[in-house]
C-alpha cells in the first residue's frame, strides 16, 4: 500500500515558518491523541481500531454477511450520516458501475424525500431481500421511519420469522430505541463501540457488515488501514497526516477557507461524500472550519471548473490521483476520415488522456491562484482505500485539534432536529413549537 502527498503546488503560496509552527503543533497533538488527553478524548476508540480488531470479530461479520447473501438478492442498508456513508464509500469504490456481484446493496433512511420508499418497495417486489439497520443513538428520525416502513413490508412478504432471519441491527450495546427493538424481536445484532463516533465508524460493523455483504474483502480493507495506522504512528518526520493537517491550517489562515477534494475516478464520488461529512461535521463549529467541497473531474470542469479557475480566491484543492487503475485500458482507435480530429491520440489510452487532463488542470488552477495538493495512491484496490480512509480520519482529528475545536462532537446537528420535532408536534417540544409559530408569523 502506498499513499504519498505531493506539495510542490502549494509551497509557493505558503509562508514556511507558519507551516513549521503547525507541523510542530501537530506532533504535540498526536501525542495528546495517543495519551487520550485531547478534547473529545472519550471518542478515540477508532484510532487503533485497524490494529486491534480481532480476527474472530471479522469472522463473525463475514459469517453473518454470507448468510444474508445466501438468502437475499438485495440487502437494504438503513442509516444516515456516519451510519451509512462509510459503507457506501467503500462499496461504490469497488463495485462495477453497471452490475452487482450477486447481492445488490441499496440504501434507505438517508433522507426524507417522499416517493423514495415507494419506489424502493416497487423495486423489491418479487425479490428476496433483507435489511441491515444502523443507528448508534438508535433514535435518529430518518432511519427510524424507513425501518418502520421496511420491516412492515418485510414481515408481510416473508412472515413473522423474517425479523429474526432477515434483519440485522447495528447499534449501541444497551441504549436507544433500536437496541430495545432488536432485543424485543430477537434480531441478530452488532454493537457500535461507545468510544467510536458515527463518522469514524467505518472500521466497525457499521461499515464492515454492508461491505462484506456487497462481496468485498473486509480483511484486505482492514489490512490497508492497519498499514496506514502503523505508518502515521511510527514516523513523525515523514508523516503525511501531519503534513496535510499543517498545510490545511496554514492555507485556512491565509484565507483559503474552502477545500475542494478533486478526483478523476468514476468510483470515487462516494468517498468524497464520506470525506465531506468527516471534515464538515468534525471541523465546522465555533464559527470556524474549512468548508469541504468536492468535484468529480473531468465532468465538473464543464460546470464548477469555471468557478475554480476564475471565481472568488478562497479555495484550495486536494487532488486524488490513482497511479494505476485496475481497469482494462481502453485505447483510442484509428479513423480514416478523422473528422473528429482525434487521430493525434491514436493508440493512446483513456488513462493517458485522463492523467494529462489532471496535470493540465492542476497547473491551470494553480496559475489561477488556487493552491493544489496531490494525494498519490498506488491503485484503487480495497487495501489502499482502507489506508486512505484511515489517513483522512487521523488527519481530520489532528487538523480539527489545530483549529482548537473538538472534532468528535456535532452539537450543531441538534438545532434542525429540535425545530423539526417542534413543527411535527413531537411531545416534549411544545415550548419550541410556540416559539417557531411566532417566528413564522414575523
Ligand atoms: O458522525 C456522526 O456522529 C453522525 O453523522 C451520525 O452518524 C448520524 O447523525 C447518524 O446517527 P445515528 O447513528 O445515531 O443514527
Automatic annotation (TrEMBL):
Record: active site: 281 (proton donor), 417
EC number in record: 5.3.1.9
GO CC terms of this entry: cytosol
Subcellular location: Cytoplasm
UniProt-listed GO biological process terms: gluconeogenesis; glucose 6-phosphate metabolic process; glycolytic process
Top-rank taxon, per record: Bacteria
Pathway annotation: Carbohydrate degradation; glycolysis; D-glyceraldehyde 3-phosphate and glycerone phosphate from D-glucose: step 2/4; Carbohydrate biosynthesis; gluconeogenesis
Keywords linked to the UniProt accession: Cytoplasm, Gluconeogenesis, Glycolysis, Isomerase
PANTHER family the UniProt entry points to: GLUCOSE-6-PHOSPHATE ISOMERASE
Family, per entry: Belongs to the GPI family.
Protein name per the record: Glucose-6-phosphate isomerase
Organism, as annotated: Salinivirga cyanobacteriivorans
Amino acid at each position: 500500500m502506498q499513499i504519498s502527498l505531493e506539495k510542490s503546488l502549494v509551497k509557493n503560496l505558503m509562508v514556511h515558518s507558519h507551516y513549521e509552527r503547525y507541523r510542530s503543533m501537530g506532533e504535540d497533538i498526536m501525542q495528546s491523541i495517543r495519551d487520550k488527553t485531547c478534547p473529545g478524548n472519550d471518542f478515540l476508540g477508532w484510532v487503533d481500531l485497524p490494529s486491534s480488531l480481532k480476527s474472530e470479530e471479522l469472522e463473525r461479520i463475514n459469517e453473518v454477511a454470507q448468510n444474508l447473501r445466501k438468502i437475499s438478492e438485495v440487502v437494504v442498508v438503513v442509516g444516515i450520516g456516519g451510519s451509512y456513508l462509510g459503507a457506501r464509500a467503500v462499496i461504490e469504490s469497488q463495485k462495477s458501475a453497471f452490475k452487482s456481484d450477486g447481492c445488490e446493496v441499496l440504501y434507505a433512511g438517508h433522507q426524507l424525500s417522499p416517493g423514495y420508499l415507494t419506489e424502493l418497495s416497487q423495486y423489491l417486489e418479487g425479490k428476496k431481500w433483507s435489511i441491515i439497520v444502523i443507528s448508534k443513538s438508535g433514535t435518529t428520525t430518518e432511519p427510524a421511519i424507513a425501518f418502520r416502513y421496511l420491516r412492515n413490508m418485510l414481515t408481510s412478504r416473508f412472515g413473522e420469522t423474517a425479523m429474526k432471519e432477515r434483519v440485522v441491527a447495528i447499534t449501541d450495546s444497551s441504549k436507544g430505541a433500536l437496541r430495545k427493538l432488536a432485543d424485543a424481536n430477537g434480531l441478530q445484532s452488532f454493537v457500535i463501540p461507545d468510544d467510536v463516533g458515527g463518522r469514524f465508524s467505518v472500521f466497525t460493523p457499521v461499515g464492515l457488515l454492508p461491505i462484506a455483504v456487497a462481496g468485498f474483502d473486509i480483511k484486505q480493507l482492514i489490512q490497508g488501514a492497519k498499514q496506514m495506522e502503523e505508518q502515521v504512528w511510527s514516523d513523525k518526520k515523514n508523516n503525511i497526516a501531519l503534513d496535510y493537517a499543517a498545510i490545511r491550517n496554514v492555507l485556512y489562515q491565509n484565507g483559503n477557507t474552502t477545500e475542494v477534494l478533486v478526483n478523476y475516478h468514476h468510483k470515487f464520488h462516494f468517498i468524497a461524500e464520506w470525506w465531506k461529512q468527516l471534515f464538515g461535521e468534525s471541523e465546522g463549529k465555533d464559527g470556524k472550519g474549512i468548508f469541504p467541497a468536492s468535484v468529480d473531474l473531468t465532468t465538473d470542469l464543464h460546470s464548477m471548473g469555471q468557478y475554480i479557475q476564475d471565481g472568488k480566491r478562497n479555495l484550495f484543492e486536494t487532488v486524488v490521483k490513482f497511479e494505476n487503475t485496475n481497469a482494462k485500458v481502453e485505447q483510442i482507435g484509428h479513423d480514416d476520415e478523422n473528422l473528429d480530429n482525434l487521430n493525434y491520440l491514436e493508440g493512446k489510452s483513456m488513462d493517458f488522456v485522463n492523467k494529462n487532463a489532471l496535470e493540465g488542470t492542476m497547473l491551470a488552477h494553480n496559475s489561477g491562484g488556487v493552491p493544489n495538493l496531490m494525494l498519490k495512491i498506488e491503485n484503487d484496490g480495497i487495501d489502499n482505500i482502507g489506508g486512505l480512509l484511515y489517513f483522512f480520519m487521523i488527519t481530520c482529528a489532528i487538523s480539527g485539534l489545530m483549529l482548537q475545536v473538538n472534532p468528535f462532537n456535532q452539537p450543531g446537528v441538534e438545532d434542525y432536529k429540535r425545530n423539526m420535532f417542534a413543527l411535527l408536534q413531537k411531545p416534549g417540544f411544545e415550548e419550541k413549537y410556540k416559539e417557531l409559530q411566532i417566528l413564522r408569523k414575523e
